[in-house]
Write a structure and sequence with these properties.
The protein is mainly alpha-helical. Among the domains are: about 10-175, Rossmann fold, CATH 3.40.50; about 185-280, Helix Hairpins (Orthogonal Bundle); about 300-330 and about 375-525, no CATH class. Helices cover about 65% and strands about 5% of the residues. The chain contains 33 helices and eight strands. The strands form two sheets. The protein has a six-stranded mixed beta sheet, with helices on both faces. The protein has a two-stranded antiparallel ribbon with strand order 6-8. The longest helix has about 35 residues, at about 525-555. The chain is elongated and about 110 Å long. The model is unreliable at about 1-5 and about 40-45 (pLDDT under 50). Bound molecules: guanosine-5'-diphosphate and magnesium ion. Magnesium ion binds near residues 23, 24 and 66.
């Protein structure tokens, strides 16, 4: 049935391309939905789907992971390849970075070879033009034998034309099968022969394109060989023919057959580029090159990185906390103000329903509110990190850190996982960080990266730091946070070095680092990025954190202690004293009661039980309670702290912030606070991360190992800080 206005055709489209070619930008421009748009490969491991309308068609669009090749060496390549082969989308859009045409065409050649219905989006055309690269689009289209549409994905330019081309190709995919790649007479003959055999095999016919399968077999692709072995009607015959072809090619060229094929593809890509690209007559030093000569400098690069991160922290505190620029208050002050009003509004319940009152104010407002109070700081931090990402600076950080990482037995791509986990300050999460290790080909590199990535400062650890820093280091907040950031890298690199020497030994693999051109970030991109991450944080506070806060409250509220001895003491006091003295005494008694209650509770007993060990690091029983909560999610450390301190202190001025309460508590000191910061930074990854490590490493043993070693390491570090601090006379 021909498409009409009333019955749109439903088509499936897949977006393929090199990392950083603009796939996700194109996906967003086509589907109108917003997803993280980053500058480093490896974030788009998971598949994303959306819908695009155009030309009377509805396209279900999938954003495939970015790859340079489809050889199925890495998880991404396998995902992308299997999708095209098995799902057989109606059209594949290959996003090609016009400014790096030759390298990008290498992937296009492989998609062409798969005989998939293809449309090339010649993206970053603006960058190419700025570099005065003159690309003949029509020529390119005719050489490849597929439609080519120039686009600027991040601005949505060219998407309409692209959809039109997609609709056209999808309308008659068989007619739009691209031209075949020629490898020269000798190879083509072997390929043709093998393909002929494959097309007559009952098990393979109709399942794979014969020519593609033949090339893959000659390329010694093990995944394909396995599939042939299990699916072919006569696997022996095909194996023998493939071996014959390989042998023939290798004797003819005196080279491995896979190199012959790879060279053929490179040759094709280079040839296409020579035909349709005119370079500027005077070699152009681009703006990106000029900036890179400074930011990627051997010595200058690391110094700039350190300055950038320090600047980031300073500005975050100024904007979120110190400057009263929002109607006379700072954003943080507004948040505190809101929660004070909220707690006050519950006070009428205290007499009528003490249990409900405690659940609401101590459990929910204390727990969730404690986490929510940091939203302004987190939001500003996320916004700054989003700007860094969108400009392309994060890719430079990876480049600068690469050299350093190698010394510690990590590899270049590890940096991506670490940055995603929060390595730039506090904008990350270890769950996608662990997933980003999929880009590492070498299993051992991957494992070590997975084990150290959770040591980075993820968004959830920030509130703990911020709360303690506000309490004990109010005048030097940014500087302390900066020290914490440095420490996280030192600890992570040290841990990697030890793990590499002691637990996971093995060779390192070399790797080419990407340096995409700098971009001026778009306001919309930064806002979407910031909003997405902040919303994820808020949503977590409203769900997981809420649930566990309530559970923790129960554990802290029950079993109840007998109130009568305290009532008796109050009665005695009332008989003997009066006026202000009486008020003070009653409050002291109530405080004793609340503390006795908390100590007697399930959580209190657990916390007290750990004191013989935890005292080495200076943690009291209340701190232990909150650290137990942190095993589930790091946000809960602050939340539970809030609950433990509000339950344990019945202050008439109960709306006092947690930071103030700790700062005035004689039990606390700067040394204790810093020891706690170190422990929270390192100890056990949260539950979600553990599950991810389990899944990604394929073994529950590694998840348990990461929890055990991190907790021990964190404790050792905290003891070191605390005992060292005491020895230097810094405590109390
Ligand atoms: P992906 O890794 O392929 O998904 O690439 P992204 O979509 O994340 O894009 C990488 C960067 O390139 C982002 O900062 C985009 O804003 C930017 N970008 C994407 N398309 C274009 C374009 O056509 N021109 C320019 N100048 N920048 C682009
Ligand atoms: Mg992407």
């Amino acid at each position: 049935m021909p498409p009409t206005e009333s019955s749109p055709r439903h088509l499936r489209a897949a977006i393929a391309g090199n990392p950083n070619s603009g796939k996700t930008s194109l996906f967003n421009a086509l589907t109108g939905s917003y997803h993280a748009v980053g500058n480093y490969p490896g974030v788009t491991v998971e598949r994303r789907e959306g819908y695009a309308r155009g030309n009377g068609c509805i396209f279900r669009v999938v954003d495939l992971p970015g790859t340079y090749s489809l050889t199925a060496y890495s998880a991404e390549e396998e995902v992308a390849r299997n999708f095209v082969i098995e799902q057989r989308p109606d059209v594949v859009v290959d996003v090609v970075d016009a400014a790096n045409l030759e390298r990008n065409l290498y992937l296009a050649v492989q998609i062409i070879e798969m005989e998939a219905p293809l449309v090339v989006a010649l993206n970053m055309i603006d960058v190419a033009r700025r570099r005065r690269l003159d690309i003949d689009v029509d020529k390119l289209s005719s050489l490849l034998g597929v439609p080519v549409v120039a686009t600027q994905a991040h601005r949505g330019v060219g998407t309409r034309e692209l959809l039109a081309a997609c609709a056209q190709v999808a309308a008659d995919p068989e007619r739009h099968i691209p031209k075949q790649i020629r490898y020269g007479h000798h190879v083509d003959e072997q390929v043709g022969h093998l393909a002929g055999l494959i097309s007559h095999d009952e098990g393979l016919r109709g399942r794979f394109r014969p020519r593609w399968l033949a090339v893959k077999l000659i390329e010694k692709d093990s995944a394909v060989a396995d599939q042939v072995a299990s699916l072919a009607a006569d696997p022996g015959a095909i194996r023998a023919a493939a071996d014959h072809a390989i042998h023939s090619i290798e004797t003819h060229f005196g080279e491995h057959s896979e190199s012959v094929i790879a060279e053929g593809r490179h040759g094709f890509a280079a040839g296409v580029v020579r035909e349709c690209l005119r370079l500027p007559t005077v070699p152009l030093r681009t703006r990106t090159d000029r900036i890179d000569s400074v930011t990627c400098h051997r010595v200058g690069g690391p110094i700039i990185l350190v300055c950038v991160v320090y600047g980031l922290f300073v500005s975050v505190f100024k904007v979120a906390d110190e400057w009263s620029w929002l109607f006379g208050k700072s954003p943080t002050e507004w948040m505190e103000w809101a929660f004070e009003r909220l707690a006050e509004s519950c006070s009428s319940l205290q007499a009528r329903a003490p249990l409900l009152h405690s659940l609401l104010t101590d459990g929910i407002i204390g727990g969730v509110g404690g986490v929510m109070a940091f939203v302004p700081l987190i939001l500003v931090m996320f916004a700054f990190v989003a700007v860094l990402e969108d400009t392309g600076y994060v890719a430079r950080v990876a480049f600068v850190m690469d050299r350093l990482l190698k010394v510690f037995g990590l590899q270049g791509k590890s940096i991506l996982a670490m940055i995603v986990s929060g390595g730039l300050g506090g904008g990350g999460c270890a769950v996608p960080g662990v997933m980003a290790t999929r880009t590492l080909r070498e299993e051992k590199d991957r494992l070590v990266t997975m084990l150290v990535a959770p040591l980075m400062n993820c968004g959830a650890k920030m509130p703990v730091y911020l709360m303690l820093i506000a309490a004990f280091f109010p005048r030097i907040q940014a500087r302390i946070l900066f020290v914490v950031w440095l420490m996280s890298w030192i600890v992570a690199l040290g841990a990697a070095w030890v793990l590499r020497k002691a637990v996971v030994r093995g060779e390192q693999t070399p790797f080419v680092m990407e340096l995409p051109p700098y971009h001026v970030p778009t306001l919309r991109g930064v806002l979407m990025h910031t909003w997405e991450r902040t919303w994820a944080y808020v949503r977590k506070a409203g769900t997981v954190i809420l649930a566990v806060s309530v559970i923790m409250w129960f554990l802290m509220y029950f079993p109840r202690v007998d109130a009568s001895p305290f009532e008796e003491r109050i009665a005695v006091a009332q008989a003997e004293l009066g006026g202000e003295e009486l008020v003070a005494v009653i409050q002291a008694i109530r405080n004793d009661q609340a503390t006795a209650q908390l100590r007697n509770s399930v959580a209190g007993r657990l916390g007290s039980g750990l004191v013989p060990v935890s005292q080495w690091a200076g943690f009291d029983w209340r701190t232990n309670i909150s650290l137990i909560g942190g095993f589930a999610a790091k946000e809960l450390v602050v939340g539970t702290f809030g609950v433990a301190y509000s339950m344990g202190n019945v202050d008439p001025d109960a709306t006092d912030s947690l930071s103030n309460r700790l700062a005035t508590d004689p039990q606390w000191s700067r040394v204790k606070a810093f020891a706690l910061i170190m422990f929270v930074m390192v100890y056990a990854p949260c539950m979600a991360t553990q599950v991810t490590i389990w899944r990604e490493s394929g073994s529950v043993r590694w998840a348990l190992f990461s929890t055990a070693y991190a907790t021990l390491l964190g404790f050792a570090l905290a003891v070191l800080v605390y005992q060292g601090g005491l020895a230097l006379g810094l405590g109390q």
